[in-house]
Specification:
The chain has 203 residues and is α/β, with parallel strands linked by helices. The chain contains ten helices and five strands, in the order E-H-E-H-E-H-E-H-E-H-H-H-H-H-H.
Length: 203
């Protein structure tokens, strides 16, 4: 890992069970973990935050994950951030990525997805040019059919399969098929990858 000798994973969630679960999984992968019960708790130590990565829930009482992200930006904290989101909050997670979040995970997610997201987040931070260049993404977009491009745009905007189907006048199952084709053609591993590519292509 080239970002820092011993990056610390900072976990922010108001649910103690979630904090304990995340800390356990990350700890078994030999990450150093510090947990916080609220965004305010993290902000209290923001000026001396150990290098690493932040994982925060989107919905929290008092200060939401999005409000925390904005507050961190204002304080000049440049840690990569992963947001945890419920299925209904995918559009919110897309907005978070427009604010610079490197990845998001839909609940429930498995341990492997969590660890892979942490690895990706730290690698993106360490190698800021590692994501595909805009020209490469545009080339992949050109390979999509018109309907695949419609599905790409809807999914990247945070629409669910059901809402995308309603928008496009097709069945949710058909959206799933197109979405799988889009993921393959765009060489995207996750929905967050698609969102990131969409943002790069629209710059």
């Amino acid at each position: 890992m080239s970002m820092a000798a011993n990056p610390v994973i900072h976990v922010v969630d108001d649910d103690s069970a979630v904090r304990d679960s995340l800390s356990f999984v990350l700890g078994t992968a030999d990450w150093d973990v510090r947990s916080y019960a609220s965004g305010a708790d993290l902000l209290a130590v923001a000026d001396s935050l150990a290098p690493g990565l932040i994982i925060t829930d989107v919905r929290m009482p008092g200060m939401t994950g999005l409000e925390l992200i904005e507050a961190l930006k204002q304080r000049g904290v440049r840690h990569p951030i992963i947001v945890l989101t419920g299925h209904a909050d995918v559009a919110m997670a897309v907005e978070a990525m427009k604010s610079g979040v490197v990845d998001f995970l839909e609940k429930p997610f498995d341990d492997g997805a969590l660890l892979a997201a942490v690895e990706r987040g730290l690698e993106l931070q360490a190698n800021l040019g590692a994501s595909p260049e805009r020209s490469e993404i545009v080339e992949r977009l050109a390979q999509l059919t018109a309907r695949e491009r419609d599905v790409f745009n809807a999914v990247a905007a945070g629409e669910s399969n059901k809402s995308a189907a309603q928008l496009l006048g097709i069945s949710p199952r058909t959206v799933e098929i197109y979405r799988a084709n889009v993921m393959e053609k765009m060489q995207a591993r996750t929905l967050a990858d698609l969102v990131r590519m969409s943002l790069i292509a629209s710059d």
